[in-house]
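User: Thanks for the earlier help. One more: UDP-N-acetylglucosamine transferase subunit ALG14. Can you show the sequence and predicted structure together?

Assistant: Of course, both are below.
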Amino acid sequence: MAPTTSASVLTGKEESRNDQELKPDTRAETYSQLHVETVSGINLTAAAFVAGAASSTAAGLVLSGLSWPWLISLVITVGIVLVTFIVYRHFEMIRRRQKPGGSWLIPSNTPQPNAAGTQVPNTTSLPAIYFTYILGSGGHTAEMIETIKQSFRGQANIHRRYIISIGDTSSLAKARLLEATIKDAYPGEDARAGTSDIFLIRRARKVHQPLYTAPFTCLISAFHAANALTRMPNPRSTEDHGKGFRYPHVIVTNGPANGFIVCFVAHLLKIFYLVPENRAKMVYIETWARSKTMSLTGKLFLKTGIADVVGVQHESLARIFKGSQYIGPVSAGFLQR
């Protein structure tokens, strides 16, 4: 069994780079495992939509002889059945998650001990560990990178996927810098660096974008998110690893940009049985800057219940917002740098 490695390995390595200009790391680009891809379409979801469109067309041809009242009644009935199915599956998934033993971590509004000093579970014996991190921009990305470093343990069976908005060059540079730091900590053929890739997807809504166009860009972003969530990592072929890396085990986000859209798509994929229910577990971490109230994204995660864990970094928030869990200042370390 490969030994676990302290996250301080990454912290020490990166301190020597603090004064460098943050730009795409040219060495990181040469690493074969750091695959960067701009998503421009869909695969699994596209197949589902094509099948649905074909079925609808066929049904329309068969039912074309029916009168308009019959057709309208049929459409309404199908719509009611579909909505009922989605609502039932949503609450059934939440119910199973909250059953004793049904979740790997059940959210609670009771403040918990500081999680920053706890030991990360040893997962080196598992066949596959697949994390998806959604990077926002600016301080949110800095917090997410710090969270990854604090929880990082070197092991060969791990894959990291970063989902970044197209045009967010700052987050892209930080992800590359982090991967370069990991590679420096485990040089050469040391497999404990794991593997990684980056997917660039359409931003759900740009700054100052008119609200009436937001639904269209959100829909495009959702299609791209479905692609990023269902694509097998290139370095983890099915021949060598089976289906262990077919879907992410955990999705981690701290809110901005496409965080909620990606998680909502993951939830829908599980509702329609396109992704196994025990995959794509969602963890939302409220930014450290929020100490008195939660962000709109955080409130959406709480109200919808799609996240398995809604973590806050201040005890006051855990007391105010039922359903959130105090996890300690897991991402505040970047303020000390």
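User: Great, one quick takeaway?

Assistant: Residues 49 and 55 are 10 Å apart (CA to CA).
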